[in-house]
Design goal:
Elements (H helix, E strand, L loop, with lengths): L1 H23 L3 H6 L12 H22 L4 H22 L3 H22 L4 H27 L1
Helix pairs in contact: 1-3, 1-4, 3-6, 4-5, 5-6
Length: about 150
């Protein structure tokens, strides 16, 4: 039972934190005014995509916590979450596209590092992070394009 309570706490932390930050830093008129690349997705896709990704991130974190709560993999997981939660306030809140690009590059690196570190011990957690890595790689390209165009 305690395992599932821990999962619930991970879901609340990740999904709740991500949604709160997302609502606090909605794109708004500033983002709408930016020149965008032709591959920029419609705004409505971001909410559902991040909701699903946050669930996957939480489950991978929970599995890692159960295996080794103070290990290197858990620390990397924590770093990626901090960077994830930092990106929206940097990009949308402070409107700093360049510094946000630095944050997202570090985020992508931490995601890839997490996958590499857990791959041999917990392949499922690695796979749970695969869509996250793909989405953040795309978001990195989008962030870089927005910096270039604006």
């Amino acid at each position: 039972m305690q395992r599932y309570l821990t999962l619930l706490l991970f879901l609340i932390l990740v999904l709740g934190g991500g949604l709160l930050i997302g609502y606090a830093t909605l794109p708004g008129a500033w983002y709408a005014s930016l020149a965008k690349p032709p591959f920029n997705p419609p705004n409505w896709i971001f909410g559902p995509a991040w909701t699903l990704l946050y669930v996957l991130i939480a489950v991978a974190g929970w599995r890692t916590w159960l295996r080794q709560p103070t290990g290197t993999e858990m620390k990397i997981w924590g770093v990626q979450l901090v960077l994830n939660f930092l990106w929206s306030p940097t990009f949308f809140g402070a409107r700093m596209i360049g510094p946000a690009l630095v944050v997202i590059v570090l985020l992508l690196a931490s995601i890839v590092l997490f996958i590499a570190r857990v791959w041999n011990r917990d392949r499922l957690s690695g796979w749970l992070f695969a869509p996250y890595a793909a989405w953040v790689a795309f978001a990195t390209l989008l962030n870089a394009s927005l910096l270039w165009l604006n």
